[in-house]
Structures are given as C-alpha cells and as structure tokens.
Amino acid sequence: MVSIARRPNGQWRPRYRDAAGKEHARHFDKKADAQAWLDSVTTSVLTGAYVDPKRTRVTVAEWAGQWLDSKVDLKPTTHRCYEVSLRVHVLPTWGPVRLGDITHQGVAAWVAQLSRSGKSASTVRHAHRVLSLILGLAVRDGRLARNPAVGVPLPRRVRGEQIFLTYAQVDDLAAAAGRDRLAILFLAYTGVRYGEMAALRVRNLNLLRRRALIAEAVADVNGRAVFGTPKTHQRRQVPIPRFLAEELAVHVADKLPGDFVFAAEKGGLLHLRNFRRMSFDPAVRAAGLDGLTPHALRHTAASLAIASGANVKVVQTMLGHQSATMTLDLYGHLLNDQLDEVADAMDAARAAEASSRRPAATVAALPTGRSAGGPVG
C-alpha cells in the first residue's frame, strides 16, 4: 500500500508498507520530491532490491567486528593481516559511518587519499579488499542493496624484481650457511614456502620415491608459532632431486618420525627470524647476493624447474599455487626462453614422422643382355 498525503503544515507525506506490513513514511516540501522517493522505493520492492532503512544504520565499526568474528575459515596470519588493515586503514575513516551512508564515490575518494599519502599499491588494494568484504557481507545479510566498493579504481600493483639464482649461486649460498646448508638446498630445489619447510616432519619424507608431503605450515603470529594447513589449505607432494634425497637420508637417519626435518641447533622449531639472523643473512652477504630473501629461493626453484623442462601444471603443483593462471602470471616470462627449443623439437618430430612415411628403397634387378636386345652375336 502506497499513498501521498498533504499535512496541515503544508508538507507532503508519502508512505508505504514493506513486505512485513510495517509502515514507512517521510516528509517533503514538494509533492514531486515525495512522488520521486515513493517511486524509487516501489521500484526497489518490485525488483527485490528493497532494504529496510533501519537495517542500514549499523556503523562500519560494529559490522566489521561481526564480519571478522564470522571468518572462521581464515589462517591465523590472514586473520592478523585483516585486523591490522582494519585498525590502521579502514576504521579510522569508516568506523563511525553507517552502512547506508557509504557511497561508491566516497570509497573511491578514500582509495585515492590512501594512494596520495604514500601507501604502497598492495597496502591500498588490501585495505579496499577488507572494506569490500565487510560490505559484501552486509549485502548478503540484507543490509545493503549493493556493494558500493565494487568497481572502484585501484592503483596498479608493481611487482618487485624477481631474483633467480643459478645452480652455482645456490651451491655458494648453501655452503656459506653452515649447519643450515640442507635447508637452503631444500628451499631452492623444491620451491616450498619457508613455513612449510620449517613444519616438515620426518614422517612426511618418502626418500625412496624422492617425495616430500607438504601437509603443514607454521607461522609467527604475534610472537607465537601457530601451526596450520599450507596456504591453499591443500596437501601436496613435491619432488626431491636424487642428490638431495641422498643427503636427507643421512640427515634424518637418527631422527624420530615426529621430529622436524630441519630443526633449530638446540632442537625444536627453526624460527624464521633465527634462521635469517644466524644462517641465511650472513650466507647472503658471504655469497655476494645482497638483498636476497628466503622467498627468492622459491622463485629460483620455479626457474630451475622450467629450465629443466617442467610444464606450467607441474610447476603449479610443485609450488602449491591455487591455479595455473597464478603460476603463469609469476613465471610465464620464463617460458619465452624455451620458444626456440619448442620450435626445434617440432622440427625434429616432423622430420621423424616424414621419414617414417617415406617408402623403403629397393634394389632393382639389373637388365640382362637377353632382355635388353636379344642374343649377343
């Protein structure tokens, strides 16, 4: 039911009842404005986009708390990143704002302001993603008709220069790392993340098949080691080169199945900060590879695998990427180096097939004197 009535004070009062039978009304000085508002509400009801205005009055700060509490599927490190982004970038601007008062242009202006303040593109994009996820839940909960953060222009992420070590550089780095030599070789030849290597147990090594089962990862969350599933929540098998499998067999010979493959000097978890301070960073300086991080060994593993002939799907599985598209985005340029090899292989395959189709040569019988011209006189 909808209607417009003129009040004794001269204002126009449009009103309507929602699906629950509750009456809503507003007051306007002009009848045209009252009719326009009523028409917009009626259209929203008919198209299913209607939202009770009272449900939009909750603030972003209140709704963000409910959103974060509902994210039970997050890894601890992701949960911490969301908390930091909320506290530092989202809530200072949007905390007291009601959901219904957020506009697309307002979000765009906020993104632009963050960019102008010197924040990196990754930081700005992550802050926008957090706000968009919060508003997305509001849409699904019937508090907003649409997500005003969708479609906002975002700064382009500039990917840092990737470092790919050669076999010789990997050997030099490992040799300079002392007791953690095998850990560096494992990172450089398997491509696992540091947290996956640190959490690897002896029971998850199959050195006869030269495989490591990546089933667990560890992360430092607020100074506390938190164990969980790998980044994509999926277990995977990674190949181990024969020379490394042989060295690992000797390394774990006296360990128990539940022991860490790569442990701290006094036993227990090999924390990243200690690994870098005691072994990795000094080895980087000794090998003349300033600026190298443990994550660069993951890039190195990908480049060595591709150079050895591994296809994109194999590299994706090895690194634990969620999709082959992600692998191509990161390492697709390395495949260009194999274009000549592919062309040469196609040439060889074509020549081999053509050779197999060619009929075998036969020796023709030489003509005799009789058959050539009769008896010889």
TrEMBL record:
This protein's record includes keyword DNA-binding: yes
Pfam families attached to this UniProt entry: Phage_integrase
Domain of life: Bacteria
Disordered as annotated region, ranges: 357-377
PROSITE patterns hit by this protein: CB, TYR_RECOMBINASE
GO biological process, one term: DNA integration
Start and end residues of each Core-binding (CB) domain: 58-139
Record's protein name: Site-specific recombinase XerD
Organism expressing this protein natively: Blastococcus saxobsidens (strain DD2)
The organism's taxonomic lineage, starting at the top: Bacteria, Bacillati, Actinomycetota, Actinomycetes, Geodermatophilales
